[in-house]
Amino acid sequence: MSAVPSDLAVQVTRPGVSPQGGAPRPAGRIVSALRSSPSVLLSAAFLVFVVLLALAAPLLVGLVGWGPYDFDKNAIDSDLGGIPRGALGGVSAEHWFGVEPQNGRDIFIRIAFGAQVSLLIAVSATIMSMILGVGLGVLAGYHGGWVDQVISRVMDFLMAFPSLIFMIALLSALPAGNRPVLLVIVLSIFSWPYTARVIRGQTMTLRNREFVEAAVASGANSARIVFREVLPNLRGTIIVLATLAVPGFIGTEAGLSFLGVGVTPPTPSWGQMIATAVGWYAVDPMYFLIPGTFLFLTVLSFTILGDHLRKQFDGRDVA
Amino acid sequence: MVGYLARRLLSALGILLLISLFTYVIFFLLSPDPAVLICGKTCTPDRIDQIRGTLGLDQPFWVQFWDFLRGFFVGRTYGDGASAVSCPAPCLGFSFQTNRSVTEMIETRLPVSATVALGAAVLWLLAGVGAGLLSAVKQGTWWDRGAMMFALGGISLPNYFVALILQYVLVVQMQILPFPSAVPFGEDPVRWFQSYLMPWLVLAFGYAAVYARLVRANVLDTLGENFLRTARAKGLSGRLILRRHALRPSLTPVVTMFGMDFAGLLGGALITETVFGLNGVGKLAADSIAKNDQPVIMGVTLLAAFFVVIGNVIVDITYTFLDPRVRIATR
Amino acid sequence: MTAPAPLLEVKNLTITFPTPGGTVTVVDDLSFAIRDNATLGVVGESGSGKSMTSLAVMGLLPPGGRATGSVLLDGEELLGRSERELRRIRGERVGMVFQDPLSSLNPYYTVGLQIEEAYRAHRGGSRRAARAVVVEALERVRITDPARRADHYPHQFSGGMRQRIMIAMALCLEPRVLIADEPTTALDVTVQAQILDLLRDLQAQTGMAMLFITHDLAVVSQVAQEVLVMRNGSMVEHGSAEQIFSRPREAYTRVLLDAVPRIDDPFGDLRRVSA
């Protein structure tokens, strides 16, 4: 055992001191972030489970024996207004998470298909809002001048918008069409300014750093500087912002579906399942507890993961 | 200072105009014909034309938008002759569903939303700032871990889920609270408190979590500042250092956040009000959206935007008093 | 007649920090002493442990830091004292001035209040009484119109003025020892000279002992009678300023000396690179 620690060990224990020279290596840091804490490990494991659940949903239909839209009249008690037969909302070997009241649809398989919808929308919205936010943020921060002025004003405008009410109004006014696609578009339009604001600030700082100034002085063109010098240095920030954006979108999508303007029935979504369960919460609490718990754990896991990544990259605690 | 204030208010007005134009365009372009909606199932083409004339729907878009704005600032009259209906300023039109004045509808709902927002704000400031300070001062202890776990829960649990759990436990199982129903304070103060308690708790939990995380991070940042080292080198007591030198820089950003959050809530806590069936502006918004009642949607959207924009101005002005660096710059 | 006992004496000071990879020693077995009216310049590159030494004297090491050995102020041991006792010494008997005056002053409070609280923390009394001390302290560091300037905020002063305020704050209780940790590093050269002048004058007036920490030998040559050169936490060379500058014994001291630009030695920089 060496008594003399390496420089790196000292730096790791002193938050706020970022190692000089060389771009950070996100891949290596992610791995070490995952190893450093059991809560992170559990979160990652749960997310892997949810992703697998979503991907395998069509296969699970065969395994479970129920599709997401199959009614099971035998699992509900029509004399009691259609509440599930048996304890805990009808949990049994046949229906692992019980069934929905009134129609007897299998909750487990609907959770799996709901995961598909939730994750697909959240991840697509994250990708889109990151593309918009990083693109426009870098443009504003790097170019400055009137470009910055225009982009900043649009950002101010969008951030002053009562976005939740407006999203709901917009979604309810829009023709039904392809709901998930509409959701992704609306979610990204109202969220990119929050990414762009951070990216713009960091780009402005980077713009004045020696290595970027050197590249400018040596006559490299702007696109080259942005892709070779600026973006690689923003990698850490982008990864953290994206990781923390996903749970935000999952929550918002569920909220919109809960209010009835998100994913339209019968397509299952966690938020919409909870919304349907509202009418039954007193007699069949399992109906809202199961999708609610999945929603909670998924958001929690992404948040824990994002917090840890941020700590790794910034060397500081979460805000 | 006066010039600064005038500039800020003018730009706020500009943003509000833009938002109303934006909202108007979208509903003008996307919605089904309101005249058909109002007319209902037993409808003749004549009747539809008549309604269009009364509401000015036969006019070009710009005229309609102009009439809307004018109605808001000076009032307007729908139709003419004996059937004329006057709508005094600030006129937001009439609900397609109930024919009531939108301004009036909002006025009757606003106290409920304000009560929800105020009570929740008191709770979340106490809990959030308290938990944040506690965990920063006792960093690394079980207090810290506990407070941060609580905060993680608060930001990860959707508020409608918390609302359902609370209702199930407190109302259905333990039966210690009645179902919330917005009882007026004058009618029965105890019932009033009981009916608002759950909405307050649910809202406050989510916000308190965010505030606790923010306060903790801010205090820890401030504790690392050079001026804190100076304060210690002067021989100040730990309590004075914390109270004077650490708290003010840490809590000033909280003011900004609080202003924006509170302003946002005044425009209606959509989900919470809907879940608990409280007749506030938020529930009005949700109901009008469900029924495609355009004048009401327009009204609540503008109201919410108004609060956010004005809240922004108030926060900026407050800031000039809280942060001396900003104060001098604006003069 | 015996020589007077030193005002501040540091003996075998060792400072360690725990890290996951083991204990790191940032200052190793350092000893020095300063008498009344004298200035000791401690010189070294960043990371040489000179700032940690000054913080250890004040009992202000960052969390986890452990100091062993002995720090004697007027013959009294400071190491191992309780936070309460140390608090009475900080500001009252040992004043401290830091490198970056802007970040070392709280931006939210007037400079008057920040000087006042230092005074009242030790002497108590009314704010009105302390006010006179504040104005006098500002006057002593040659700030014009001190009564009005006391109500201004740190950002309303220039860098040099801010450092004057820091000095006024450190000296408002007339401590016998002043620790100045890179007090001129953040300032430009002309302002640097003014601050050094001020410190010399104040020392002549009060007879205080000064521990002057810097990476810049040129600065040290203007204030210190005695110089201690540090590297990697250990002492390299210790002697009178005259000896260090004219007859440095150690190679490392010569490297540092060569880094000081001189008009008569235009190739100094080149030599340093090859050293």
Q: Identify the strand order in the major beta sheet of chain B.
A: 1-2
Number of strands of chain C: 10
CATH class of the largest domain in chain B: Mainly Alpha
Count up the domains of chain B: 2
User: What radius of gyration of chain C results from the CA coordinates?
Assistant: 19 Å
- Could you name the ranges of chain C where pLDDT drops below 50 across 5 or more consecutive residues? 266-275
**What about the largest sheet of chain C?**
6 strands, mixed
Largest interface: A-B, 45 and 50 residues
Strand content of chain B: under 5%
Mean pLDDT of chain B: 84
Percent of sequence in beta strands of chain C: 15-25%
State the CATH class of the domain at 8-101 and 177-258 in chain C. Answer: Alpha Beta
Give the % helix of chain B: over 70%
**What name goes with the CATH superfamily of the domain at 8-101 and 177-258 in chain C?**
P-loop containing nucleotide triphosphate hydrolases
Q: Which series of helices and strands of chain C comes N to C?
A: EEEHEEHEHHHHHEHEHEEHHH
Describe the structure.
The complex is a heterotrimer of chains A (319), B (331) and C (275). Chain A has 319 residues and is mostly helical. Helix content of chain A is 70%, strand content 1%. Chain A has one domain (43-313): Orthogonal Bundle (MetI-like fold), CATH 1.10.3720. Chain A is built from 13 helices and two strands, in the order ααααββααααααααα. In chain A, helix 3 (38-55) crosses helix 6 (107-143), helix 6 (107-143) packs parallel to helix 9 (179-207) and helix 6 (107-143) packs antiparallel against helix 11. The model of chain A is unreliable at 1-24 (pLDDT under 50). Chain B folds into two domains: 33-91, no CATH class; 103-329, Orthogonal Bundle (MetI-like fold). In chain B, 76% of the residues lie in helices and 2% in strands. Chain B is built from 14 helices and two strands; from the N terminus they run H-H-H-H-E-E-H-H-H-H-H-H-H-H-H-H. In chain B, helix 7 crosses helix 8 and helix 10 (238-266) packs antiparallel against helix 13 (294-322). The mean pLDDT of chain B is 84. In chain C, strand 1 and strand 2 form a beta hairpin. The longest helix of chain C has 18 residues, at 189-206. Mean pLDDT of chain C is 86; it is low at 266-275. The B-C interface holds B 225-227, 229-238, 240, 244-245, 248-249, 252, 323-325, 328 and C 58, 60, 83, 87-92, 95-96, 98, 100, 103-110, 117-118, 121-122, 153, 155-156, 166, 169-170.
